[in-house]
Amino acid sequence: MTVDLLVIGAGAAGIAAARAALAAGRSVRVLEARDRVGGRALTDHSLGVPFDLGATWLHAAEQNPLVPLAPTVGVALVDSDALRNEITFAGMRPVTPAEDAAYGVAWNAFEAAIEARAARGPDIPAADAAPSGGPWDATIAAWQGEVIAAAPLAAISLHDFAATLLEGGNRLPEGGMGALLERLGAGLPVTLSAPVATLRWGGAEAVAEGPFGTLRARAVICTLPTPLLSAGAIRFDPALPAEVMQAAHDLPLGRAIKVGLHAAGEDRLGLPAHTSTDRQVRPGEAMVPITFWPRSQPIAHGWIGAGVAPDIEREGPAAAEALMREEIAKRLGHDAPRAFRPGALVSAWGTDPLARGVYSHARVGAAGARAVLAAPLAGGRLVFAGEACHPTLAGTVGGAWLSGEAGAGIALAA
Q1: CA 98 to chain centre
Q2: Mapping DSSP to helix (H, G, I), strand (E, B) and coil, where does residue 276 land?
Q3: Which CB contacts under 8 angstroms, 24+ apart, belong to 286-289?
Q4: Percent of the chain clearing pLDDT 90 (strictly above)
Q5: N or C: which end of the chain has fewer CB within 10 A?
Q6: Is the pTM of this model over 0.90?
């Protein structure tokens, strides 16, 4: 087979690139190693309701290309910010209004300190620019690092962290993010269970080889996660430039785990629908945000951040469930976990051989790695795309989508 554009990977970036190529009237083929589309977005239904094991929100809604696109494929969006009821706990009690106000002031001070230090100085660990010593500083650092960035602030480039701070609203696709990407990928020329073993890209056309056979293309967009690139999951011939391999190494994927529990009965623990909870933590203590009864569904879902996620993944799903139940008890009392059935739905992206993590952050001193990875090769006939390639929306589905569209434009022009 010979096509104008070969797309490697059918996640958000790959789907966006393929749609752009078809809209331009070009022939395209998407090769996906998994037996499904969606990449690190996967909607599970084993709890009886849609549960996103991977990407969940459409962040930065005001500039997210999927916000206007979702309704065109019949997917309604929910304003999760408007639904959310927030409760922060200090020990086993909700914080007072004064404490909550101080928490908000400290959060604003954190972001102001990050932006100010990034604007005036060299790249350093983001942790070194964050306020410390205040009663809420450790909680905010755990949120911003282990939870939101899926990596400790000490391991993250300050300049990259500041560039990718998210602003704006958040939307939830009805039916789940994985289901949304399935609809957006429906009808595309995708070959599943088709990992690319070798890509020869040095000539006038590229040649991909794998269990699917041989495919020739005039240009290629590769959306492989950065750990797979740096580990040589595809043999590139000629070898990729050293600076590209270094960029992939300098953009590792963080570690985090999502846990879902199903209600055992009608007990809702006195909490209204869509109650988002966190608790004040000490330095080094794990932060596990938990949302109870999202959109009135009989489930709770939690997010185990990077501080403990690698160890929990090695121990297995039972350890993740145990930590989730422990966190519920710390907030709502020792009997509260009984409101949920035994067993849990647990993600495992860190041990997934086709992901090896959740989303990217830049190592300290490597704030320019995203631009290096996104720079076209061979005059634009080989382009890398994905969330790791977006300069400001890294780590998001919207960033991956925009990167895929931009890569398609470059490749098609070439």
Answers
A1: 33
A2: strand
A3: 286/142, 286/146, 286/323, 287/139, 287/142, 287/143, 287/146, 287/147, 288/323, 288/324, 288/327, 289/143, 289/147
A4: 98
A5: N
A6: yes
